[in-house]
Structures are given as C-alpha cells and as structure tokens.
Write a structure and sequence with these properties.
By secondary structure, the protein is α/β, with parallel strands linked by helices. The chain has a single domain, classed as TIM Barrel, CATH 3.20.20.70. Helices cover 30% and strands 17% of the residues. The strands form 2 sheets. It has a 12-stranded mixed sheet. Helix 1 packs parallel to helix 2 and helix 1 packs across helix 9. The longest helix is centred in the first third of the chain and has 15 residues.
Length: 332
C-alpha cells in the first residue's frame, strides 16, 4: 500500500496522532473521575510497547502522521514510556513528539524523556494554590507539579505549555493569578472549556465557565490582543498579554468549536481508533494486529475509520450523547 492520507469525507486530513498509553492516573480530578477511581483496563487488553510502536510506524510510514502526542490517563505511569519515545523518534526523526501529563513524575523523568527524543510537554495545572489544587485533584501534590515544570524547562522540553480548566465556585476567581504566574516563568497557559467527558456524566453546560467568561476575567487585569498569526488547525485561540511576548490561549471546544479545521486522530490504550474526541464509535486495530494483520491491512482499516468522521462533535445538538469512555480512557 502506498502512502495514503487519513482523509475524511469533508476533506480534513489527520496528521496529528494522540496515543493513549494507559487509562490509569495518579490524581483524581473532580471533573474527570470519582474519588475511588475507575475500573482500569485489564493488562491483557492494553497494547504492548511493541504494538504501540508498530501502529505509530504504520501511521507515520503509510498514513502521513507528522506529530505524535502521548497521553493517558497519565502517560508517566507507563513503565515503557521513555523507550516508546526513543523508538518513535527512530521511526520519524522529524516528528513532533510531545506528552500531555499531570506533571507529577516530570522532576525525575524530564531529562531522560528529552534525551529519548521528546520535544515538549503539556502539563495540566488548574491552580497554583495548594488548597485549591488539593480540592480539585484530591491529592496534596502541587509541589511535585511545580518541580516537574521546572525540570521540563531545564531539560529543554519547551515551550512548556500549561492546560487549565476553570470550575465555577472552585478556581474561577484565579484565572489572572494563574496567568501572571505562568507568564513570569515563561510557561504558555491555555484555558480549556470543561467538556462533557467526565466519568460521572455530571457535566452541565450551565455550570461550565465559557470562553467569554474566561476572557472577561482576564481582561480585568491584562490587555489582551488577538494574535496576528492564523491558528490553522491549532485548538487554541491565542492572545498577546499586555502586548507580549507572553501569550494566553483559549480552547473553546464547546462554545466556539473548531471541528472544521481538525487534524487529529486518537488511538486508545487498548488499540481502538477514535476519529473524534466525542465519537461514540471506535475501530479495533488491536484484534486485527494480534490475528496477524499486515501493516497494509492495518493502514486500510485506519483509513476506513477516518472516513466515518462526522462534521462536528454535536455538543449543541439536542440528540448529543456523551461518549461512554471518559477522557481518562480516551486520551486528550
């Protein structure tokens, strides 16, 4: 099979692959999962390191993937992460390699990840107040995240990006505080509208802090100017902070959807292709691979999976149904 783009029927081409390495996490964020955690995937269903690398090789070599982001759950709890990154770098010397992490293990792993070929990190951090951090994550680990951010910057894993979700009545009064903290340290902050991907299915649009509200809070303390460069397929709308060079991004997946420019495809930890974060259908590559499918066979299955991608996520549609899998089992 010759190289074939992962193109859907609307002409969008996926070049950015999000690979979930585990559904497990060492935090219990209130907007993601219950305090007691979830029933994790059985080990036998999770892709092995060799299987992960093989599917990435198929994506890069046959399907035009140009960027790979490793997600979870929490990818740093995957024992083979460093080796997977090293082997992925061998697959594509020019690939953009990144991870989305809660940062707890970065202080001890950042240097090794950089040496293995990782380019940068996205770290989830919703508050720089220890008490609020503990309230949201149900863990007293803010100091570990801060140390991890410093280690990532020291290892050259930049730009270091921070993802934050504002929760009404919990940290929605801390937007400017978090932005000032990030700007002072050279971290690039992105606020993300809370999406209906929680395990408890307790998301409510009326309780969600919208992009307009985020901007209104920030503009009390900063002058925000829309960035000149077009965002393209990037999910964040960027603003210069007080004329720059610091920026802040707003990812308004709910109120300002950017589905028309989406270039992402997802591979779950158990080897399922998801053509949209909110898809309710998946395409199984793991079973085919374990039954002896060739690389060409796997690529063809992947191409077919992408053709079924819908025009948009449909959150505003009255018939919208939240995916059965929560974010921790899909990968960001």
């Amino acid at each position: 099979m010759q190289t074939s783009p992962l193109q859907d029927k609307y002409g969008r081409v996926a070049t950015d692959l999000r690979v979930s390495l585990t559904d497990r996490c060492n935090l219990r964020c209130t907007y993601c999962m219950p305090a007691e955690g979830l029933d994790w995937l059985p080990d036998s269903s999770v892709l092995t390191d060799d299987e992960v690398v093989r599917l990435i090789r198929v994506g890069v070599g046959l399907l035009g993937i140009r960027a790979v982001r490793f997600t979870g759950g929490e990818p740093l709890v995957r024992r083979g992460l460093t080796d997977i990154i090293r082997r992925t770098r061998e697959v594509g010397p020019d690939l953009e390699l990144s991870i989305t992490t809660n940062g707890l293990g970065l202080a001890r792993t950042a240097q090794a990840l950089a040496q293995a070929g990782l380019n940068r990190v996205n770290v989830s951090l919703d508050s720089i107040r220890a008490e609020t951090f503990s309230d949201i994550t149900r863990r007293n680990r803010l100091h570990d995240v801060v140390a991890g951010l410093e280690a990532a910057r020291a290892a050259g894993l930049g730009p270091v990006k921070i993802n934050a979700v504002l929760l009404r009545g919990t940290n929605d009064d801390q937007a400017s505080e978090l932005l000032a903290w990030c700007a002072e340290r050279g971290y690039e902050l992105r606020f993300i509208e809370q999406m209906p991907l929680d395990a408890q299915h307790g998301w409510s649009r009326s309780q969600m802090i919208t992009a307009d509200e985020i901007l209104e809070r920030l503009e009390r303390d900063f002058v925000l100017t829309a960035a000149v460069d077009p965002r393209g397929s990037a999910p964040a709308e960027l603003f210069l902070v007080d004329g720059g060079p610091a920026t802040v991004g707003i990812i308004a997946a709910v109120t300002r959807p950017f589905c028309g420019d989406c270039d992402r495809v997802r591979l779950t930890a158990d080897g399922q292709v998801r053509n949209c974060l909110f898809a309710r259908e998946e395409s199984d590559l793991r079973t085919a691979m374990r039954r002896g499918a060739t690389d060409d066979d796997l690529a063809e299955r992947w191409v077919i999976a992408m053709r079924g991608k819908r025009a948009g996520h449909g959150i505003d549609d009255p018939t919208f149904l939240q995916p059965d899998r929560p974010m921790s089992a899909i990968g960001g």
